[in-house]
Amino acid sequence: AQSVAQPEDQVNVAEGNPLTVKCTYSVSGNPYLFWYVQYPNRGLQFLLKYITGDNLVKGSYGFEAEFNKSQTSFHLKKPSALVSDSALYFCAVRDSISGGSYIPTFGRGTSLIVHP
Amino acid sequence: EAQVTQNPRYLITVTGKKLTVTCSQNMNHEYMSWYRQDPGLGLRQIYYSMNVEVTDKGDVPEGYKVSRKEKRNFPLILESPSPNQTSLYFCASSQSSSLGWGYTFGSGTRLTVV
């Protein structure tokens, strides 16, 4: 069975400071991990994914995420936050052992607020 | 422009009145899916389709129907809507059902059932 947790409902950060949005997961096999962003009144947009290889994955808009197998985490990071990064962020996971079902599981979302 | 198009964006209806939310993608994607988004619950999958004429239930299929008669379209049907189906709905597509592919989402349909 697969599951994903975003332990923070909201993250507040000042513009220019580094940001981290946390995600932990649980799978039976190997994880396929994704981050999406949702701006107000918009659908979700794909940011980045981890399939295999380098643990540090770079994505859109200057975001990156670090895969940590021992901590079963896939935290989203950005070195310098912008006010325009304020949005709802979703982590999602797919398990390589899916029993034939390829349905990804999404986290509940974390609201990122970047203050000027 | 590659996109997933949902209609309508907003809909207010009354209990029991059948409705259809349309979804169309122009990317020749095999895999399509419907989600609902509710506060505190995140995204939950309603139905998905791995190809034409192939559909299956997601986590919360009760009260919904879908069809996939052609590759580009994947309508969501509520035969007898109830207030607990008030939600924000998203259609999504992916080039493949393979594990490594991400989704392209539509802009959403906000449904209110009174």
Offer a few descriptive terms.
heterodimer; A: 116 residues; mainly beta; 6-stranded mixed β-sheet; 52% strand; B: 114 residues; 7-stranded mixed β-sheet; 4-stranded antiparallel β-sheet
Give a written overview of the molecule.
- The complex is a heterodimer of chains A (116) and B (114).
- The termini of chain A are far apart.
- Chain A has strands at 3-5, 10-14, 19-21, 24-26, 31-38, 44-50, 56-58, 64-68, 73-78, 87-95, 105-106, 110-115.
- Chain A is 0% helix and 52% strand.
- Chain A has no helices and 12 strands.
- In chain A, a hairpin with a 5-residue loop joins β7 and β8.
- In chain B, the strands form 2 sheets. In chain B, strands 2, 4, 5, 6, 9, 10 and 11 form a 7-stranded mixed β-sheet that branches. Chain B has a 4-stranded antiparallel β-sheet with strand order 1-3-8-7, with no helix packed on it.
- Chain B has strands at residues 4-7, 10-13, 19-25, 31-38, 42-51, 54-57, 65-66, 76-78, 87-94, 104-105, 109-113.
- Chain B has 114 residues and is mostly beta strands.
